[in-house]
Amino acid sequence: xxxxxxxxxxxxxxxxxxxxxxEVVEEDGRTVVILDQTIFYPQGGGQPYDKGIIxxxxxxxxxxxxxxxxxxxxxxxxxxxxxFKKGDAIxxxxxxxxxxxxxxxxxxxxxxxxxxxxxxxxxxxxxxYHYPDGPYIEYEGTISEDEKEKTKGDIxxxxxxxxxxxxxxxxxxxxxxxxxxxxxxxxDYLPEGKPMRVVMYGDFGVPxxxxxxxxxxxxxxxxxxxIKQRGEMLRVAYDVEx
Length: 242
Ligand SMILES: [Zn+2]
Known about the structure:
The chain is of the alpha+beta class. It has helices at residues 96-118, 148-165, 176-179, and strands spanning 5-6, 16-27, 30-35, 37-38, 52-55, 60-69, 72-81, 89-94, 124-129, 136-140, 169-174, 196-201, 204-207, 222-230, 233-240.
């Protein structure tokens, strides 16, 4: 099977597109639809999957979950009516509200990091958790108990200034060796010699495959909920205006 073309990598704003059915299979008692290309974001990179509908004139498939495995995107769900067969032309429709919330939460995590960077705190970025139930970003770093409250306020103030400035996000594709020119932080685990996507928040580059807002003012506003020291790691919990 050919790898699924990931349309969201080149255009994060597409919420509806056409595609062709490659295969419909049953896996662990659930129906999986595989397409030649997709706008559905599969779970990964700290961001939850999209939901939505795949349909044509004769069938409607409800997408409840989306996963990526070995280059293939699996749209998991159930047929509300009819059935697809290989070669069918279909339309993908991503659930807008869910995607927009995930993009705002994800982008807010990057904005909090821009604020941490602008404040010169010297923390080393780690993983992010951009789920609606309690998003946070993590760093290698330390903070004393009496600095916490002020730093929390400083990050929140700076982050909201960045949101209000409303820089547009643009996409660039480059190899890891070039990323240092536009990115403040390039994770070691990225492979060499392969063009990868960098999302530019104004002139602040982020190597990232997730979905992001088109302009930072779309985040509206954000809060820093808590800074917590866990061993050598700092967890910065945040949220967006709901
Ligand atoms: Zn990201």
